[in-house]
Amino acid sequence: MKNNVTNSDVFQLMEQWAPKELAYDWDNVGLQIGSYHNPVTKVLITLDVMENVVDEAIEKGANLIIAHHPFLFKPIKQVNIDTPQGRVIQKLLENHISVYATHTNLDIAPGGVNDMLTDALELEENDMLVETDREKLYKVAVYVPETHIDEVREAFGESGAGHIGNYSHCTFQSKGQGTFKPLEGSQPFLGAKNELELVNEVKMETIVPKAILHKVINAIVAAHPYEEVAYDVFPLENEGKRYGIGRIGSLKNKTDLNSFCEYVKKALDIPALRVTGDLNKKIQKVAVLGGSGEKYIHHAKKKGADVYITGDMTFHMAQEASLMGLGVIDAGHYIEKIMKQFTAAYLKEHLDKENLTILVSESNTDPFQFV
């Protein structure tokens, strides 16, 4: 079977998991280099896009790289191929390799990086550390002839609309009559040109999250028999899902900070870490935020954390945490490498296509060595 997967197919799937609108305003997520329309045969998952990763992609024949950290973060004013960044851009373009970044949106998304870390640490009773957003909800109503109720209802459900709690395919239907007059140039499904038509119709409505609004509308339009589909979209004040950065949970059993550090190294596959606080202190409640999370030490303390795991903790912020009685484990930014295996598994589960291979990068992009 001929492969027909494009970058756009993969991007849409990633954004169902981690919608781009969840990302912080300062972030740069989505397509970095390449095209939405390029065909894909091999995808390489990496934490960072560095030259050794690009060389690996070339060697393995990958034509799409999905990275957690954006390759293009700050605006560039020139592409000078004598510089490391310019040389990497040249290699990507010459080898027709696209780059896509899923960064703070994947940190925040349910099942994203911070949930991966809490799962690896086997924390229980997890909650978000800092709420960043609420899901925006809409009501979509469409007017359907009685002959096509089932088709449009199925299009609603299969496109992801109509989820309320633990229930899916939730809709409401009310009967009525619709009128229209086909004009010159129309190709009506029902009725004759220049004659007023009266049709028994059903108004079908359901709730739709903003992230999939356009997908749902496209689905119901495709399933609808009319040449011109009448539908309404209403913003709702209902509270949708909560989204947030970081997680906080509890260990099954209390332990001392020193023993917990050894546990963290093993669970997150890191050779060493930095820690502040009394190593003999008993701990149970743990806050976690992959990447640079030092500005959230007060949130961790307020939520009752005994210890806070994050990366890139600076000297004075570590002192401030100590003064608050909050232990800090600086496990390094590289703990986010956990996203590689999880992202690969997600794509393999949802992209069941022949001739499409999902690879996990074997290149080390951690700039630090421990001596």
Automatic annotation (TrEMBL):
Q: Which SUPFAM superfamilies match?
A: NIF3 (NGG1p interacting factor 3)-like (SSF102705)
Q: Which UniProt keywords apply?
A: Metal-binding
Q: Where are the transmembrane segments?
A: none
Q: Which domain of life is it from?
A: Bacteria
Give yes or no: UniProt keyword Metal-binding: yes
Gene Ontology molecular function, alphabetical: metal ion binding
Q: Which InterPro entries match?
A: DUF34/NIF3, DUF34/NIF3_bac, DUF34/NIF3_sf, N-reg_PII/ATP_PRibTrfase_C
Where a divalent metal cation binds, per the record, is at H68, H69, D107, H333, E336
Its Gene Ontology cellular component terms are: cytoplasm
Q: Which family does it belong to?
A: Belongs to the GTP cyclohydrolase I type 2/NIF3 family.
Q: What is this protein called?
A: GTP cyclohydrolase 1 type 2 homolog
